[in-house]
Design goal:
The protein has about 120 residues and is an alpha+beta fold. The chain has one domain: Roll (Nuclear Transport Factor 2, Chain: A). It is built from three helices and six strands, in the order ααββαββββ. It has a six-stranded mixed β-sheet, covered by helices on one side. Helix 1 runs antiparallel to helix 2 and helix 2 packs antiparallel against helix 3. The chain is globular.
Length: about 120
C-alpha cells in the first residue's frame, strides 16, 4: 500500500471513530503520545489521545442520523515518514478545519498531532 493510501485509511478510521463514537478507533488512528489541541467557542482545549477517546465515546453516535460526520480532505503532503493533511469535517453541529500531522513508525501511519479550528 502506498503512503498516500495508508494515510487516507487512517483518515477514514478517524472519521469512523467520530461517526461511531468509538474510542478503540481513536486509539487505532492516533499515536499514543498524540495531542489534540484547538479552540472551541469557550476557549482553548488540549487533550491526550486517551482524553480524546473518552470525549468521542461520550458523544451520541451520529452514524445513521440526519447529521453524520462529513469529511473533505483539503490537502495532503507527504515528506518521507512524515505527512500533514488538512481536513474539513462537520461534527457535533460545527464545521472544523483540522490540521493532522502523521508519522510512520514501524510501517504504520498514525496521527501524531491534531490542531483544530472551528469555522462555523
Amino acid at each position: 500500500m502506498s503512503a498516500k493510501a495508508a494515510i487516507e485509511s487512517v483518515i477514514q478510521t478517524y472519521v469512523d471513530c467520530l461517526n461511531e463514537s468509538d474510542s478503540s478507533k481513536v486509539k487505532k488512528a492516533f499515536h499514543p503520545n498524540a495531542k489534540i489541541t484547538g479552540y472551541l467557542p469557550d476557549g482553548l482545549h488540549e487533550m491526550s489521545t486517551e482524553n480524546f477517546g473518552a470525549f468521542v465515546a461520550a458523544q451520541s453516535p451520529p452514524k445513521g442520523t440526519s447529521d453524520p460526520v462529513t469529511l473533505e480532505v483539503v490537502s495532503l503532503e507527504i515528506a518521507g515518514k512524515t505527512a500533514v493533511a488538512q481536513v474539513r469535517d462537520k461534527y457535533l453541529g460545527m464545521t472544523f478545519l483540522d490540521t493532522l500531522s502523521f508519522l510512520e513508525v514501524d510501517g504504520n501511519w498514525t496521527i501524531y498531532n491534531k490542531l483544530f479550528h472551528v469555522e462555523s
